[in-house]
Specification:
Blueprint lengths: L21 E4 L2 E4 L3 E2 L6 E6 L2 E6 L9 E3 L8 E3 L1 E4 L2 E4 L3 E2 L7 E6 L2 E6 L37
Antiparallel strand pairs: 1-2, 3-4, 4-5, 6-7, 8-9, 10-11, 11-12
Keywords: Secreted, Signal
Protein name: VWFC domain-containing protein
Main location: secreted
Length: 153
């Protein structure tokens, strides 16, 4: 809605004096195509006799990012990145888990998301656990052979 105006008027054409279509917005005259000031930075209005036409700007949405709004700007700026222990990470980067090596963490937008690591265990030999690693190693085990079915000929 035009700024400083309590109500929106239809802005009837006033071409009797200047023979050019004008918009009358609460006593202020605008020529065809002229921008009409608004209080809302997301709204853009132009003179389109006999009134005016306004459109709302659509803002890009970035999921998982932190939106920072600034006075006088329609759309927010987004902060898409993470920080852990003072070290910055970009969106999508692997982030060391602060909890344990059994979690894998990623920077997603502006937050760190972690999931539990899925380990594979074998019942046919002894596992070897390494400090600082989540899943056991099977260094001295026979190689795994894929199960193959034999069909009669």
């Amino acid at each position: 809605m035009p700024s400083g105006f309590a109500k929106k008027t239809t802005g009837l054409t006033d071409d009797t004096e200047q023979r050019q279509p004008l918009c009358n917005v609460d006593g202020v005259l605008f020529r065809t195509g002229d921008p009409i000031p608004t209080e809302d930075p997301c709204e853009s209005c132009k003179c389109r006799p006999p009134g005016f036409a306004c459109v709302l700007r659509e803002c890009e949405v970035k999921p998982h990012c932190k939106a920072v709004r600034r006075d006088g700007q329609c759309c927010p700026e987004y902060q898409c990145g993470c920080e852990q222990d003072g070290k910055p990470y970009k969106d999508g980067d692997v982030v060391p888990s602060p909890q344990s090596p059994c979690y894998v963490c990623f920077c997603q937008g502006s937050s760190i998301r972690c999931t539990l690591v899925a380990c594979q265990f074998r019942g046919d030999c002894e596992p070897r656990y390494v400090p600082g690693e989540c899943c056991p190693r099977y260094d001295h085990c026979p190689p795994l052979v894929a199960h193959q079915e034999r069909l009669p000929l």
